[in-house]
Task: inverse folding
């Protein structure tokens, strides 16, 4: 961390401040010139609160040089993390992990039908929300426990990995019994109590990026889970909020190579929420594969227009089949299986 | 709601779609011209999911005309909501409700000293975080239960209303025993499980706006609490995320008159988080009062530079005293007490 | 356009307002219910100023149903626009139009060397800035006229199409003499005086999207050029400003299929400005091709670290060669040449 | 500037890089630890291009410590700049400079009537657009030269200072003959050719902040004008683009105290564009005065509903009169005249 002191700071104040930092176990290097008083703080500054430093009235500015995240960082763990679920490997150079399925779990039969279809088309994961974070209290809130149980039933019958959103820590036992991959939704990315609780499980966590969070904040949320003891984190970009209104969100495509550089974690893309429009899902999916993602999570429904939620961004069976064929070709060009 | 159908839609498809809507209990009015097929949907469209409408392949666009929130709306409840806490009235034309205190509860003595000071300066509320949502898992996470108890002790001894952040529903009993006003932080504004649980209490809820949420989303979160049975909602604007880096957030000052127009709820401003810099707190506080807010929540600490958190935006006693004097004068000009 | 009137509007006021609109040549359709007064305005509303409608005190809200752009719209001109420059066709199903070259024109020799290299690698265009919009008045502002002339010289000697940014209309004659494709930079996207002047030329215009402009605003700027008489517009997405600081901008990848749907114009991607980091250029370029773009504009320099500007996002010869090989493969998968 | 080199950088590469910087006239201070190689660059780094530094492959990151602006900085020029126009002083502790008038100049009679009214109400400036930057090429583009001449006529007859937007440098002679204060609109804030041309005049320049520009970019644009020779710059905040759709823009109120701290220039607020809604103009105006602005620029029209442009945010005579009375009271509380 580099700290710039105010021009008018007195020598004694500088001395006291340096002592304060040294008492916290840091080594201080003076990088001042005649114009600026600059101090370099050496040591594990990930534990040093920049807000605390800025609160000193003699401090003009403070810049963090080292990243605040540690265990998610590629420099801490150079090899790719590969998350294994029921024998399927996600991340590394393993085949793409494609997840299809409805926004919300509706009936058990429909879920099973969809699971069979997406599996036959090449997907290895089945998505379906049982607890739904809806903007309006008057909108359909999901089937709850029964939806979670349907997912388990279908998973066993069809042989497919399930992904579903968990919204509060009291549902962890229910999820541990029924669900393979626990999704943390965008709105809960900084629900730290939930992250800490999930960090105490061994379940693979699909951590969605908050719709206005920076990459650093996202990685700090992953750090919460890992620091609590659970290394099985899969990152998921689902589009960020921008001024654009033609699309529901804006997919940050450059996140893919960037995450690969900064961290060792797998990264999956959600083209359905990223665009909000089914016409755009295919193009954005192919783009994500070309950019090097480790998988996709796509909303698929036999009849999107009667889906309980998110129909506008849900593709039907034919579209999913076509998408999977093209995805396989693009993946092959970049040396990746599906 | 106005629905525009695609040009190529066939008469039978239009008929079927109209029947679908009528079956949901809506009346349909045709507003088409030779260029556009437009349908007006009449009835309580707050229960109609716009995503569901958009999922029909024949739908080009859909615009909500009526607001999706109901119980928070001024048209539903024309008179100002006044939240009463231990005899103090917040909102309406009542005196401004000013809250001061540290970011985090540190020691009981320090909290008491600060409480006495802010009360003597004219504040009626004491803030202090016991559970802290920190970006880093390695940063100070708050004193927890003991901090909550300190707040209660100080409240009783000094005679001041306490405000503290609640981050998960399992802490509700602890808060009901110890805290006067429960704060929902910006990161949890869309933690719907928490909102629903708080809606089942009778506690006054200070609902902060998420740092990238629209006013409509914020009001929908208030709607969650009220629809669950708790009408005691106080809105709190604490700055939104923008590109600007000189400030931590950007205060949306126009929210004040806008909230007064759209809703009947009290609105309080947090100039500390809105700016992130103590030098800017006074100017922004005075501006908020001039714009018509119902109160302020300000971070105050006797020695900001040794505060456990948020020191950079925390003002000291002298600054708070000066601010309160100026605030009183501005409030008087607009016909409001402090 | 759908206009919602305030609840308390009197019948006579509604009548007067309808007459006002009818006098402007519109037909009015009443879509009111007992709760809402809604009027549908029928006719060419692209000429109706929404701000003017909103200025009536009886108007609650107004929603534009038809798009405000006309000549850029695919519904106005269903076939793809193909811009032809010196025999090279851009857009439609023609091979990708790849442009390489330095951020700024430096020396004529260096420019020629780079032109030869990018052409050999498969690019058909050469970029190079002679007038540079720099944030700081103290930064290198470009070679000006001499730079423009170097581009012409190199174009003739090497046989390559040149692209360079024009910042004011008084340089049009100079550009007409020397440059093949005139670039309008992001900062000038809404410099309407410049757009109108360019609309009076016949030159192909590469219109960059402003860094915080919506797609609609971008298309309205294209509409300015076309409405002034010049149909040769090529759109260029170069990333939008978001909160993210790891990248210079955020590429809006979904713009590619969206532009194809909304308009008939070619769309080119600038991965260099979109990311600001050379490590990310390749992944984002491949993604753009997979999503269906019509070309790329990439900053290439033999020694990025001594480039006069934008070195951080400039790739060197080896990287460009590798990128072109991979680009060719991805393009082939989606049935496109390079 | 602090430069962090990559871990794997070799000693010889560091040596060469230091020599490169020393050759540019900078002194280098080593602030490295065992984990990080950090170099402090000492000298006038406002002339050092950060992009150039980042282009070296051995550079991991570079942070500017000193501000990139110089002549606009308060540390360069500690006293407030006071811009004087026809005997009226703007900035410093001088009375607030309030500007009223229509969005667009319409007829000479109407302009004169409005000028008389706003002057009687206490305003010292008259606004009116003759050249209008409209999103649509089909919208009213302003009266042009004749509008500029009307402003001059009215200014002379009524005795009021005129403010009007200039959109291209070829209109400078026309403006120098007719207009007192030249406004640079938000869309042209980074039209550097225009800024440089205005820097060669002696006219007071009202420089609006671009709707998505940072404060630093805004100040760099002011630096362009001053560095070209014209110190008469007045900054104008008019709201920034955010996700919020209830308002046209979001006023950044904290800009007021921040600008006062960072620079010596006067700052004026435009509550009309900042909100886009006439109901919000008064509250936001009073807030701006309480926060310490040097003036306001407000859209006023006798009949907003028939104004040629921006009617929705234009207030009528009665509202302006009321606003001026309240403004005077708030200004008095903070020790300022109107």
Result:
């Amino acid at each position: 961390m580099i700290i710039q002191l105010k021009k008018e700071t007195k020598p004694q104040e500088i001395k006291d401040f340096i002592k304060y930092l040294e008492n916290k176990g840091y080594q201080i290097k003076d990088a001042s010139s005649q114009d600026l008083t600059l101090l370099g703080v050496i040591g594990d500054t990930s534990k040093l609160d920049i807000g605390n430093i800025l609160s000193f009235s003699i401090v003009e500015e403070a810049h963090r040089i080292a990243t605040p995240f540690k265990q998610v960082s590629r420099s801490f763990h150079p090899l790719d993390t590969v998350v294994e679920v029921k024998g399927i490997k996600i991340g590394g150079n393993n085949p793409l992990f494609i997840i299809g399925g409805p926004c919300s779990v509706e009936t058990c039969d429909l879920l099973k039908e969809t699971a069979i279809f997406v599996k036959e088309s090449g997907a290895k994961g089945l998505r379906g929300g049982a607890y739904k974070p809806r903007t309006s209290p008057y909108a359909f809130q999901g089937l709850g426990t029964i939806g979670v149980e349907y997912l388990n039933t279908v998973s066993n019958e069809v042989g497919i990995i399930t992904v579903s959103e968990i919204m509060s820590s009291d549902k962890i036992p229910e999820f541990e019994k029924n669900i393979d991959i626990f999704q943390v939704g965008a709105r809960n990315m900084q629900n730290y109590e939930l992250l800490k609780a999930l960090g105490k499980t061994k379940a693979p966590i699909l951590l969605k990026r908050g719709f206005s969070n920076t990459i650093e904040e996202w990685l700090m949320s992953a750090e919460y889970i890992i620091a609590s003891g659970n290394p099985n984190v899969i990152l998921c970009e689902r589009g960020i909020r921008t001024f654009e209104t033609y699309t529901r969100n804006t997919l940050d495509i450059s996140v893919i190579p960037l995450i690969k550089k900064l961290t060792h974690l797998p990264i999956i893309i959600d083209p359905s929420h990223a665009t909000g429009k089914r016409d755009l899902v295919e193009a954005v999916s192919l783009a994500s594969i070309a950019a090097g993602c480790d998988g996709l999570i796509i909303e698929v429904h036999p009849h999107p227009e009667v889906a309980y939620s998110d129909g506008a961004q849900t593709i039907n069976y034919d579209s999913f089949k076509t998408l999977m064929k093209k995805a396989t070709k693009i993946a092959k060009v970049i040396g990746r299986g599906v």
